[in-house]
Automatic annotation (TrEMBL):
Signal peptide: none annotated. Residues 9-102 form the Transposase IS4-like domain. GO terms for biological process: DNA transposition. It comes from the Bacteria. GO terms for molecular function: DNA binding; transposase activity. It comes from uncultured Thermomicrobiales bacterium. This is Transposase. Residues 18-37 are annotated as: Disordered. Pfam families: DDE_Tnp_1.
Length: 193
């Protein structure tokens, strides 16, 4: 795969609201016990998301690391020099043992040290979560079926990378854009290919 920076990957979790509850929701520890959704995402060094795992907001980050990295292995076989950047929520012997077993090098922020000093190469996954939160269905998930939640998570990845670049590439229509009935009524012979 050309253009991906796989020497460094970042994994982090993000909690959002899930007011409708559902299969993937759980009590949120940061929102007064209301229903919430946690998503764990792995990205390359530039913030391109590879895999996301959704579960209840009451789950700790550490048990989600294995399933999240398993999605990365589907794209790219583990390499000896791939470093996984994690925040201090993953700082434990269990995480280090898992990374060793999978063949990754762990760069884990230490508990007890100020966070801005330790951000390093992990900020790209935070930016990816911010992009995903720009998609309203993920910021406030009202879906009950886990398969539908997984669909919207996958769609947000595609939407993020299908949008035009500043050079002016043409984008696919996305939710929230105006519908143009004139294009639908144009005769087939008059449409450009």
């Amino acid at each position: 795969m050309i253009g991906l920076e796989l020497d460094d990957v970042a994994v982090d979790g993000c909690i959002t609201k899930a007011p409708g509850g559902g299969e993937a929701a759980g009590r949120s520890p940061v929102d007064r016990g209301k229903q919430g959704l946690k998503r764990s995402t792995v990205t390359d060094a530039t913030g391109i998301p590879f895999h996301v795992v959704a579960t209840g907001a009451n789950r700790h980050d550490e048990p989600l690391l294995g399933p999240t990295l398993a999605g990365l292995e589907a794209w790219v076989p583990p390499r000896d020099r791939t470093t996984v950047h994690l925040d201090r929520g993953y700082d434990s012997g269990v995480t280090r043992a898992l990374l060793d077993a999978l063949g990754f090098i762990g760069a884990i922020a230490r508990k007890g040290l100020p966070a801005p000093v330790q951000v390093g190469k992990r900020w790209v996954v935070e930016r990816t979560h911010a992009w995903m939160n720009g998609y309203g269905k993920l910021r406030r998930c009202t879906e009950k079926a886990k398969s539908v939640v997984d669909f919207y998570l996958s769609r947000s990845h595609v939407r993020r990378h299908a949008l035009p670049d500043p050079a002016g590439a043409i984008a696919l229509p996305v939710a929230g854009t105006p519908y143009h009935a004139e294009a639908e009524m144009m005769p087939i012979a008059g449409r450009s290919k």
